[in-house]
Every structure is written in C-alpha cells, then in structure tokens.
Amino acid sequence: MIHLHAAGFAATVQDRGRFGHLRSGLPTAGPADPPAFALALALAGLPAGAAAIEIVGLPFAFSCDDRRIVAVTGREATLRGHAALPTWSAVLARPRQELVVRGTSRTRFAYLAVSGGLDLAPVLGSLATHLPSATGPVPRALTAGDALALRGGPADPGAAGTGVPAPAYDGPVRAIPGPHVSRFDDAALRTFFGEPFRVAAESDRMGLRLEGPAPSPEPGELLTCGVVAGAVQVPPGGAPIVLLADHQTTGGYPVIATVIAADLGRVAQAAPGEELRFARATRDEAVAALAAERRLLGAVR
Amino acid sequence: MTIVPFGECALLVELGDRIDEALAARARAIADAWEALGHGPAVPAYASAVLHFDPLALDPAGAERLAGALLAGASPEGAAAPSRTIEIATIYDGPDLAAVAEASSLTVEELVALHASRAYTTFFLGFLPGFAYCGTLDPRIVAPRLARPRARVPAGSVAVAAGQTAVYPFDSPGGWRLIGRTGVRLYDPAADPPTLLRAGDLIRFVPAAPSAGAATAKDPGSSASGPDG
Predict the structure, then answer these.
(1) DSSP H helices in chain B
(2) CB–CB of B8 and A249 under 8 A?
(3) Per the count of CB atoms within 10 A, which of A76, A252, B38, B165 is most buried?
(4) Which of residues 123-152 of A touch B (CB under 8 A)?
(5) What pLDDT is attached to residue A76?
(6) Distances in whole angstroms, Cα of residue B225 to Cα of each of A29, A48, B19, B25, B220
(7) Among the three residues B28, B50, B73, which one is the final residue of a domain in this structure?
(8) Is the domain of B91 the same as that of B46?
(9) What whole-number distance in Å separates Cα of residue A241 and Cα of residue A237?
C-alpha cells in the first residue's frame, strides 16, 4: 500500500489518458504534463500504460508499506525524506519512510510514480481520472488518509539511482499553424507568433488561458469540430486558450495553431502571471522532438 | 473536402460548412473507417472528423494518404446502422421558455408542441460527456445563443440554440436557451458505452408533468418515426 499523509488539493490517479470514448464526449483526461508523467513512469520501472499520481497543490506526503522505487517529476518539484532527495530520479523509499514532495509557486503539476504500479481496475478502458464527470477507478481527488494498493513486491535497491536532467520549462512554446489558420489575417498571426502573452489565473486542467495581445479571428461562425490537446482556440475577443488534458472533445472557436506534443508540459506548467511566447514550428520539427522524447524514455527503461 | 494537419498527431478532415444529416453521417462513416484501421481514435462532428495517430508509428504523410483514400472510398451511407429512438420525458418550465416563445412569435403551448413534435437526429456528442448535439429544430423556433453564457446551467436542462436542441448531462456553464428539464441520466461511467445517447440515434421529447422524467430506449428498428415524424 501507499499511504497519503498530505494530498494537496486536487491530486488524482492518472494514466496516459482514456482515448476510447472521445465519441461519447468524454475527455481523455490523463496527465496535464505528459512528458513529465511519462518520465516518472519510466524512472519507476513502469510500462507506458501504468498509472501514477498527479499532484496539484503542495506539500504532498506519503509512505509505502514495503521498499519501493519512487520517482517524482514536475516543474521545480523537490523531494525530501530525512534529507533532500533528487527528483527526475529513481529513489529508494524504505518501508514506512515518509517522503514529502514540495515545489515553488511555479509547480502546477508534479507526478509520483511508485514501482509495481497502482493496483486498480480500469474504468472504460483506462485508469485516468476525469474529475468533472467522476470517471475513473478513483473518481475523486485524493485526500490525506487515503491508502492505495500497489502491485508487485519490495523493489531491488539496485534499481535506484537512474536520473534524467529536468527539462527546460521556460523558453518559447513551439506550435504548428492551423488547422483554422485561414480565419486569421497576417497581423493576427504575427501577433500570435511574435508577442508575449501572460498566463491568466483561471487556467486549469481544461486549458491555459492567456491575456495580453489579441490575435482575433476574422468574423464568421465556425461549425463545432473535434479538437486535440495543444489546440490554441481563439474566441472572438482574441484571448487564446490552449487546450490541456481535460479539454472538451469538440470546440467551436477557430484554432490558430496547435502546440507540439513535446511542449505540452511547458504550457501546462506555465504559472499565472508568467509570460508565454509561441514559436512557429513545422510538423517535421514536431515529430523530431517527439522522437527525442521517446528515445529518452527508452534509454531510461 | 480538405485534409489539414491538426498538430503532428492528428488530421482534420473537413467535409463542408453546414449542419446537414448527410454530412454528419458521412463524418461518422469516415471516423468509423479510420478507427477500423487501428492507428488511433477519431472524433466526428457536424461536417468534419479529427483523426488521431502516433506520428512515430505512422508518418504524417502516410496518414494523409490513408485519410485521402478513406474520403475517396467511404460511402455517405456507410454509417447507416438502424437507429434507435430515445424518448426524453420533459417538463417544459425552463427559465427561457417564455422568451423563446415570444422571440418566435408563438405561444408557450405552441412552442412546446413544436419542440415535442419531431424526432431529432443525434449528430454527434461533444462539449460534455453525454452531451448530444441534436437537430434540426422547426425553423419557426427562433433561439440564438445567449450573448452572455450562464455560469451554471443545471444538469438535466433541455435547451435549444441556433436550430439545435440538447440536454445538459452535468451542471456546467452554457449559452443555450433553457426551455425545460428532464430527470433522465445521460452519462453513467459504470455503463459501457457510458452515454444514453449515441450518434445516429433519434430522440423525441415527450411533455411530462412535474415528477415524471424517465427515458425509454426502443430496440433498433422498432420505431417507425422518421426524422420529420
């Protein structure tokens, strides 16, 4: 078992997402910062389809009944036992040792993966939690006092020690123009790819809301269509919204550009008040960045 | 018809720019055919489909070629499974009922009778789990979207907007006009599929007295109602 002693305010069980029910209008859910989540799984020795805990609100404190490898990732997340322990690393947790995850004001999402993995049965084909519709094997925010069963037994201490460098969370966010780029004039596109935005406080797991410049679409109705994580919707007022893990499956606002998969974490972890810039990317560049991410995961595993 | 990139992990296939049963059926047929290929899920809507794929397993140019072949091949009738008819017992007492009637130059009784007189086609689900975009409304019903969406529409609200009708499965923000309510449960994560309504279903609103509110699903093919019934 893993026991939670402090659980922040909206920690949830997540796997990589529930992709089998988009046509029911059910969002994929899954991690807001997919690259950090995937690295936590890999460092804890878990397969890509396993579940981990997404932590929102710190501190988060836990202990395990038996010896486990744990991995904590996330922007500026820190880990402590009796002394400071590394994040973005495979760390040995002794039986009943309390470990505490903390961070900074810029830590929006942190991930905790535990060797063996959470012992849960899929709901609608996935272990991901969608809080608004109460979907998932643990369809609520985790709270202090919760205990979750773990698979497998005590970990091999020799598996500890692997680590990766924390990825850069600042710098421009790469995005591919479109699919509704024809609904924006050149000035709107120059604004979008040229000027800095500011992250609005209302941002959540559904989307990151931006303030500042207004790359407004040309007038005209758009028929509602399917949308993807990373889509940058621009409502008539011109304040863009970047869709994240809990985004609606369909949307009716023009999408000026789509953030590349490798940079989704950079968007999700942007903190209210921070500046965010977009850089134009090609599809080839996006695929190359995704391939580099997968190579890193493969090397860790 | 166009096929455009939607990021590096999806394509957007656009079939047209209007709400039309034939286009929606074609979008569903293309989504079905894409999912049958096994490269990833697809999300059909009124006149489009988003096709997901892993660009490291299927290169984007190859995905575009496959999508192009589907467009050339998928027949508009490809998704013509026998439709079910779902009845939604509705109490017509929504906060916008009188205003919609007035905007439509109808009495409340006439508006209710018009709304309940048709079987509507479920075009697709989106916005919220179990939220079905249904239509089309009798053109005499005039109901533009609210200029300022409500911060909270109660679950079970029966709503109309711009030629469409729907039921809100959850409390949520919403910009459609609320004409009634139902006790029907539209989303149940313990069921598979988790939604009462599925794309292609016909739905019919049945006026009910307060305290009613059950839905009944008939077997495929058992309903004689047409879309304009």
Answers:
(1) 21-37, 60-73, 97-103, 108-115
(2) no
(3) B165
(4) 123-124, 130, 132-136, 139
(5) 98
(6) 38, 47, 21, 18, 12
(7) B73
(8) no
(9) 11
Q: Whole domain around residue B41: which residue ranges?
A: 2-73
Q: Supply the CATH number for residue B143's domain.
A: 2.40.100.10
| Minimum Cα–Cα distance from A179: chain B residue | B6
Considering the domain architecture, whether residues B69 and B97 belong to the same structural domain is answered as no
Nearest-neighbour CA in chain B from A275: distance (Å): 23
Q: What is the pLDDT tens value at each position of chain A, 301 positions in all?
A: 999 999 999 999 999 999 999 999 999 999 999 999 999 999 999 999 999 999 999 999 999 999 999 999 999 999 999 999 999 999 999 999 999 999 999 999 999 999 999 999 999 999 999 999 999 999 999 999 999 999 999 999 999 999 999 999 999 999 999 999 999 999 999 999 999 999 999 899 999 999 999 999 998 878 999 999 999 999 888 999 999 999 999 998 999 999 999 999 999 999 999 999 999 999 999 999 999 999 999 999 8
Residue B222 within a domain:
no
- List of chain B residues whose C-beta atoms are within 8 Å of the C-beta of residue A133: 128-129, 170, 187, 189
Mutate to test the interface with A, among B2, B6, B18, B192 (most CBs of A within 10 A): B6
What are the residue ranges of helices labelled H in chain A? 34-43, 186-194, 264-268, 283-300
Q: Let me know whether B42 and B133 are in one domain.
A: no
| Strand pairing class (A173-177; A278-280) | parallel
Separation of alpha carbons A114 and B2, rounded Å:
45
**Its pTM surpasses 0.80:** yes
CATH superfamily entry for domain A173-300 = Cyclophilin-like (2.40.100.10)
- Closest Cβ opposite residue B56 in set A23, A178, A291: A291
Q: In a mutagenesis test of the A interface, which of B1, B3, B11, B12 is the best target, namely the one with the most A β-carbons within 10 Å?
A: B12
The residues spanned by each domain of chain A are 2-159, 173-300
Chain-chain contact of A133 with B170 (C-beta, under 8 angstroms): yes
Q: What is the DSSP letter of A126?
A: B
Per-residue model confidence (pLDDT) at position A28: 98
Put simply, whether A53 touches B (Cβ < 8 Å) is no
ipTM of the complex: 0.96
Residue in B10, B59, B126 closest to A25 by CB: B126
Number of domains into which chain B is organized: 2
Answer yes or no: do B23 and B116 share one domain. Answer: no
CB atoms within 10 A of CB A189: 16
Q: How far is A261 from chain B (nearest CA, A)?
A: 8
Question: What SS3 class is residue B47?
Answer: coil
In this prediction, the residues of chain B whose per-residue pLDDT falls under 50 are 78-79, 212-214, 216-229
Sign of CA dihedral B69, B72, B76, B82: negative
The pLDDT, as a whole number, for residue B81 is: 61
Domain assignment present for residue B189? The answer is yes
In one-letter notation, the amino acid at residue A266 is R
Contacts of B61 in chain A (CB under 8 A): none
Considering the domain architecture, whether residues B100 and B45 belong to the same structural domain is answered as no
Q: Quick one: B113 and B43 in the same domain?
A: no
Inter-chain residue contact B126 with A249, CB threshold 8 Å: yes
A231 touches chain B (CB under 8 A): yes
Please report whether residue B224 resides in a domain. no
